[in-house]
């Protein structure tokens, strides 16, 4: 099994298969617009621009499960990201990352890379998952890990 078996809804409401990203290195991030880590959007955009031609794609999944820090609708989220951080990497519809309504993609990501102490939940906004070009989840990063600190791991996969 790989992440290519999952379908997701873009921030504009179109359902797509993650198979379209086959052969790319993916950095999947659960995001929020009103979080202390929200400025990471800037670094995520920078590494996306710098490395997209080498095969890196950042995928942003807004989530409102942590202290109501992503309460807006998809249009508001998209506008916020574009206006404040110049985000051009793919963004998706809001998802739950934990609990009974968690999107199947995040259930899979969590199982493939348990967090601290082997916990099978996403700790907070801006948890990051690195996926190799074959669709294997290779590493999970905490919200405090800066996107620029992931670059060496990405480069090792291309």
TrEMBL record:
Residues 1-158 form the Thioredoxin domain. PANTHER family: GLUTATHIONE PEROXIDASE. GO terms for biological process: cellular response to oxidative stress. The keyword Oxidoreductase applies. SUPFAM superfamilies: Thioredoxin-like (SSF52833). Keywords: Oxidoreductase, Peroxidase. The active site is at residue 35. This is Glutathione peroxidase.
């Amino acid at each position: 099994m790989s992440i290519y078996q999952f379908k997701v809804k873009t921030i504009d409401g179109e359902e797509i298969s993650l198979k379209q990203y086959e052969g790319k290195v993916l950095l999947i991030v659960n995001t929020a617009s009103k979080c202390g880590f929200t400025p990471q959007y800037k670094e995520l955009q920078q590494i996306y621009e710098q490395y997209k031609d080498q095969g890196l794609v950042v995928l942003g999944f807004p989530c409102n499960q942590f202290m109501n820090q992503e309460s807006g609708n998809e249009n508001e989220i998209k506008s916020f990201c574009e206006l404040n951080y110049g985000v051009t990497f793919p963004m998706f519809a809001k998802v739950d990352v934990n609990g009974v309504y968690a999107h199947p993609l995040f259930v899979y990501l969590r199982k493939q890379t348990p967090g601290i102490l082997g916990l099978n939940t996403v700790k907070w906004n801006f948890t990051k998952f690195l996926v190799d070009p074959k669709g294997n989840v290779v590493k999970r990063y905490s919200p405090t890990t800066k996107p620029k600190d992931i670059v060496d791991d990405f480069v090792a996969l291309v």
